[in-house]
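Figure 3 (text version): structure tokens given as input.
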């Protein structure tokens, strides 16, 4: 099964590169704790012609959020954080301007009401953890907490990251390494790179800018300001070295898949337990099915992760249609998820950021669907 499946995925991603649909990408997948897909194709750096290999690194945008959520759940599992406790209990300054009632659960489910970036935010400001957290702590909510779902595209990372920093008494990036990555043997996940790995990074490129036709004054432009939400910005050396946990993580597919292999294994991988089994079912329970979306859209969020299921209900169908799958995608098409029913985990990274109205035409969907089909056929 392993050889045949890896060959099938390799052929598929090769075809995407040959057709021009992709430039460079990696795929990794675990089944029952075993790495059974480890494939890559195409060009990592279009300027130099450097090819992708298994060690190439990609800025994977909001795929980073899944790692952030897992770090928060580690603290919850240790009894140090409670989901329904106000954030201000851990971060007193956060209570300013009507935010005293916003809980950790609200932050995890994108219902906190503060998705907007600070007015006049710049790339330089985003590299300053204290400046960003101070500005977000001064925000006034755009809606009462828990009454609407509105994706906190960038602010999610600093809100949860600052909770983690204050509770663990260490920077978020350090906690992620020591509590999650190092115990699992994940060596290629960075929220702030060391200089030595920069030559391995594949610069990302927007196929087209999805913010181009957004009307001036739109809330979307406050949530994802164009001056900071672009390929040019995340390719900057200073941004790569900064801790930006909402969307600045740099990683490879192996790191993503290994993280989710632990979650697909109900909190354990290779004999190393990171989370209790009960925690896995808590964190993947849908929290938002009956809460209206900010822009009228339905959504399915667990505690920090998107959920699989039915597209019409706001699910991320690339993860699967069963409803028990959970994970996080990234701006332009990267994805990581766990499917405990199949004992499957999946990671995909890519450098050409693409978009489309039909989620079943996305590269991540097609590759994940091919893997699921192979697994389900073998199970018959």
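Below: residues designed for each position.
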């Amino acid at each position: 099964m392993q050889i045949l499946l890896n060959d099938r995925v390799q052929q598929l991603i090769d075809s995407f590169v040959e057709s021009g649909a992709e430039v460079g990408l990696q795929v990794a997948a675990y089944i029952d704790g075993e790495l059974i897909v480890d494939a890559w194709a195409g060009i990592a750096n279009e300027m130099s012609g450097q090819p992708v290999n298994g060690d190439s690194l990609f800025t994977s945008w909001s795929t980073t959020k899944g790692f952030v959520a897992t770090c928060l759940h580690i603290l919850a599992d240790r009894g140090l954080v409670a989901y329904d406790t106000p954030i201000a209990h851990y971060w007193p300054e956060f209570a300013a301007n009507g935010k005293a009632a916003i809980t950790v659960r609200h932050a995890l489910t994108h219902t906190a009401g503060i998705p907007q970036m600070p007015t006049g935010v710049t790339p330089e400001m985003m590299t300053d953890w204290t400046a960003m957290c101070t500005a977000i702590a001064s925000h006034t909510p755009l809606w009462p907490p828990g009454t609407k779902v509105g994706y906190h595209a960038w602010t999610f990372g600093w809100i949860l990251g600052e909770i983690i920093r204050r509770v663990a008494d260490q920077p978020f990036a350090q906690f992620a390494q020591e509590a999650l990555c190092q115990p699992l043997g994940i060596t290629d996940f960075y929220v702030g790179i060391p200089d030595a790995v920069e030559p391995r990074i594949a610069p990302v490129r927007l196929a087209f800018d999805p913010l181009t036709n957004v009307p001036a004054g739109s809330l979307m432009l406050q949530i994802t300001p164009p001056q900071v939400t672009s390929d040019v910005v995340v390719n900057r050396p200073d941004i790569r070295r900064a801790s930006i946990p909402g969307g600045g993580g740099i990683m490879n597919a192996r790191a993503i898949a290994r993280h989710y292999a632990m979650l697909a294994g109900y909190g354990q991988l290779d004999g190393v337990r990171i989370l209790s089994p009960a925690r896995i079912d808590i964190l993947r329970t849908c929290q938002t099915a009956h809460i209206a979306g900010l822009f009228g859209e339905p959504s399915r969020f667990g505690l920090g992760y998107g959920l699989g299921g039915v597209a019409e209900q706001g699910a991320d169908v690339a993860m699967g249609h069963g409803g028990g799958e959970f994970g996080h995608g990234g701006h332009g098409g990267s994805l990581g998820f766990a499917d405990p029913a199949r004992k499957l985990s999946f990671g995909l990274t890519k450098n050409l950021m693409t978009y489309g109205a039909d989620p079943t035409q996305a590269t991540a969907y097609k590759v994940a669907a091919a893997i699921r089909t192979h697994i389900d056929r073998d199970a018959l």
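The mean pLDDT is 96.
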